[in-house]
């Protein structure tokens, strides 16, 4: 099978043929040109055909001259060979062209013979007649006629053939015209195809460029794809891990659920138990409350049995630089149960120089014995002292007014007992900070039983019957304006000091800050008036309020801690200069207020109808802490020095009087 040719090649073939055809007309004899040629020439033209006809024998019939001519066209006569017959031209056209071409290049020229020459013309299909003698003109004429006739026939035949050729030529021309048209069409087509090809090339170029660009772009996505694949692998790994985790979690969940159901059952039983316990707790709370109330009652009874007015004697140690008293000057005899008993007695020996014996020998010292609720010898520590009064602090929380005094001459240790020693050493902390710490801690414990406590502190000094605020701040600091003691309201039992600060406190630090402020205020005052602090009474008061919201119970009571002014008497032998006169006035004021305090205690003890509270600012301010239900404790501070024996005796006598007092039966201030 012949391979299928591309349309382009086919077109090219056509074009080549057309080119050959285009050249051909220039070589074609003009129509009718053969008529101009002589009979010889025609004979010459005819001759080869004859020869060929003869060579081919009878197979070539005269009725198909054109077919004969076509088949006998030599391919080797320098003619341009037609490589392929175009389909459109057809075999007839090719034959015509072949004939024309053949006629164009005749064989070797034969010189024309002049008529009448002896050369006899070839006779076709006849035997050459024998040469007639010259004289046989007739015979010659006859021959000539015969030849003429033959020629005529041949002419006629040639004319016919000529006509045929003309027809063929016309046909060929028409075909050529058609071919030219076709060629143009094909050329146009070619041009179009070329344009298309160019366009295709361009498109191909563009596509190649795009391919390159896409390939370039592909490199990035490839990297990305690799990365994504890697990531996918990682994610798959992670997923596997998570699935494993999930499984583990599910397993745990199941275990947890099992545990939970177990726990729920346990919870249910625990709830039952809790309900039972809550019931029990409520009963116990009820019982506890009953016990607490019972405790308060018994505590109070105990305090009453101990005495609502108690006196403790405290002897300070001999300070460095002071002369040691003679042995036996102060004695602390043991109690009935021996030395294990806390001391309650004190003996002071005084040698009266004025009393001499007749022999002139010094008289034996007079021994003065005193008995108090408790006696603290010089070595007693602050915490031992506080332990004895902590029960009273508890009473204050239970709703009983409590008042603690420190009485004694200047330098006997009153301030040391109430506020503490210098330097802020916790070992030497006084009663005020210890009492407040104890209050805060007990209030905290009682909050578990439903009690809520609040504390409000005030700190004033009474100097020369004037009241000043020791908690004054700002411009009033150290120069606190005069304060007045007033009733909180008409018909109210409660007293309040005008212009004084009442500061709510809830912790030790706040109390420390207040004591520090009071010390500062005293220090400023001291520079203004010499040693005023020892010439004035310092009154620290704490209003305690408790509430049991659940039971609608309330209690309120003041706790007063008083550092009294020096109880020493003015030496009557001293010359009265201007300074001494002032000092005398101070002393008189102090003595007056201290004796009023004694009188008030006596009146209360004797249950007198009139209690002279108003006789001094001190008793007036403290009246709510001294009356009926109040509990009072007086520290009598004694100097261990022999030189202070007179003042010590005075103090001890005053304290003994107080100690003999029994003030009513205390009633808790319940509302
Ligand atoms: P008052 O207030 O009665 O005037 P102070 O409390 O100021 O007396 O005491 C006078 C001095 O004695 C102070 O230096 C104080 O530190 C010291 N003092 C008082 N009592 C004691 C004691 N129990 N232990 C040690 N030193 C004390
Ligand atoms: Mg003092």
From TrEMBL:
GO terms for molecular function: ATP binding; microtubule binding; microtubule motor activity. This is Kinesin-like protein. It comes from the Eukaryota. Minus end-directed microtubule-dependent motor required for bipolar spindle formation. May contribute to movement of early endocytic vesicles. Regulates cilium formation and structure. Gene3D superfamilies: 1.10.287.1490, Kinesin motor domain. Keywords: ATP-binding, Cell cycle, Cell division, Coiled coil, Cytoplasm, Cytoskeleton, Endosome, Microtubule, Mitosis, Motor protein, Nucleotide-binding, Nucleus, Phosphoprotein. Residues 148-308 form a coiled coil. GO terms for cellular component: centrosome; early endosome; microtubule; nucleus; spindle. Residues 24-90, 105-133, 324-371 are annotated as: Disordered. Pfam families: Kinesin. Belongs to the TRAFAC class myosin-kinesin ATPase superfamily. Kinesin family. KIN-14 subfamily. Binds NUBP1 and NUBP2. Interacts with PPP1R42. Its main location: cytoplasm. Residues 69-80 have a biased composition (Polar residues). The keyword Cell cycle applies. Residues 329-338 have a biased composition (Low complexity).
